[in-house]
Amino acid sequence: MELKKKWGWFVGLGILLVILGTLAVGSAFITTLATVLFIGSLMMVAGVAQVISSFSVKAWGGFFVDLLSGVLYAVAGFLVMQHPLEASATLTLLIALMLIFGGIFRIVLALIVRFPNWGWMLLHGAVTLALGISIWNKWPADALWVIGLFVGIDMLFNGWSLVMLGFAAKGMRVEEEKV
């Protein structure tokens, strides 16, 4: 019953992801740089927070390890932000791995669970897996645009999967949801 009540949220989120995915595909280089800079800034903030946190528990035996971890995290984030083009090559490889494993997970989930419109999830998994393998094969030559393009395509398929799941949930009978 809960899924049926919330079908609109799935559709709304799906539509938002389709719009964002379209924007990401249309400006792949900018999306790549934005992604790299965002990750670098998160690393810097996390590192500074960890350094500050380490000083709040100086008596703890792990103080120096905590402090060093925070400093390394902050420095790595700073380097990513200072060299976003070079960092995009490393992140491109990480995204390739994420897409490969995410695609495999979606395929296995769709085949095992068989929820309404599971074929969309299967298609999403197959496309995600293919994107990951494609990145792996072209790495590092296409690192400047591939992150934005493939993340955008993944968002598009995720969005359409959620839209279809939402519409399927809208038409569910209460007994179907209990299964």
* Mean pLDDT, all residues: 89
Number of domains: 1
How many DSSP H or I helices?
8
DSSP strand tally: 0
Largest sheet: none
SS-derived structural category: mainly alpha
- Overall form: globular
Order of helices and strands: HHHHHHHH
Distance N terminus to C terminus? 11 Å
Report strand %.
under 5%
Helix content: over 70%
Low-confidence stretches: none
Rg, nearest Å: 20 Å
What's this, in brief?
The chain has 179 residues and is mostly helical.
Walk me through the structure:
There is one protein chain. With 179 residues, the protein is mostly helical. It has one domain (2-32, 84-178). It is built from 8 helices and no strands. The model has no long low-confidence stretch (mean pLDDT 89).
List the SSEs and their pairings:
Blueprint: H1 2-5, H2 7-26, H3 28-56, H4 63-82, H5 84-113, H6 118-138, H7 146-170, H8 174-178
Helix pairs in contact: 2-7, 3-4, 3-5, 3-7, 5-6, 6-7
Key phrases:
179 residues, mainly alpha, 0% strand, globular
